[in-house]
Amino acid sequence: MENEKYLFVVSGAAGTGKDSVVKALREAHPEIEKTVSATTRAPRPGEQEGVDYYYRTREQFRHLIDTDQVVEHNFYNGNYYGTLREEVDKRLEAGKLVVLVIDVHGAANIRRMFPGATTIFLLPPSVEELERRLRGRGTETEASILERLDTAKKELAQQEKFTLTLVNDEVDACAEKLYGIIRQRAGLDR
C-alpha cells in the first residue's frame, strides 16, 4: 500500500515510556492518529473501552485472530494484545499519519505486513531507570516486576531490527524528536 509511509510503530520494553511519549506527541500534534488496541486483560482504574483498549474475552479475541481481523498480536502476562486491522486500514486509506504503540514481537509482524512502515525502538536512559519506572507504577507484584525486567533485557537486544532508536530521557523532548522523524519519513518536510 502506497500510504504505508504514514505508518509508524513505537516499540520498546515495558517501562520505556511508549504510551507517555505518544500521548505527549498527540497532545502537541493531534493530526497524528493512534490506533486503539484490543486486549483480554481487565481494564485498569480509569481506562475506558474504545479509548485505552477494546476489551474482549478470550473467545472474542481468538475469533478476531482466526478471521484475520488482527494485524499483530501477542500473548503477554496471561493476556492477548493486538491491533485490529480495521483500525490501521481505515486510517491509511484516508492518508492519515498513524502511530502504533506495540511490543517488540508485534513490531516484527508489522514489518512483515507493512514493509513501508517506520519502526522506532524507544530506549530508557538506563536499565536502572527502567526498573525505577516499573516499580513507580505501583501496579505490579515483585514477581511481575522481575519478570518484566527479564523480558525487557531480551527486548532491548532486538533494537537493531528497528528503523531507528530514540532515548526517552524526557517525555516532551522525546515526543518532539519523534515528531521530527514522522515529518521527515512521511515526506512532509519537502
Automatic annotation (TrEMBL):
According to the entry, every stretch annotated as the Guanylate kinase-like domain falls at: 5-183
Q: One Gene Ontology cellular component annotation?
A: cytosol
SMART domains associated with the record: GuKc
InterPro entries according to UniProt: GK/Ca_channel_bsu, Guanylate_kin-like_dom, Guanylate_kinase, Guanylate_kinase_CS, P-loop_NTPase
Indicate where this protein resides in the cell. Answer: Cytoplasm
Primary location = cytoplasm
E.C. designation(s):
2.7.4.8
Keywords of this entry: ATP-binding, Cytoplasm, Kinase, Nucleotide-binding, Transferase
Task: List the Pfam families hit by this protein, alphabetically.
Answer: Guanylate_kin (PF00625)
GO molecular function terms attached to this record: ATP binding; GMP kinase activity
Q: What class of enzyme is it?
A: transferase
Residues annotated to bind ATP: G12, A13, A14, G15, T16, G17, K18, D19
Reaction equations catalysed? GMP + ATP = GDP + ADP
Protein role: Essential for recycling GMP and indirectly, cGMP.
| NCBIfam families membership | guanyl_kin (TIGR03263)
Family, per entry? Belongs to the guanylate kinase family.
Q: What is this protein called?
A: Guanylate kinase
Species of origin: Faecalibacterium prausnitzii
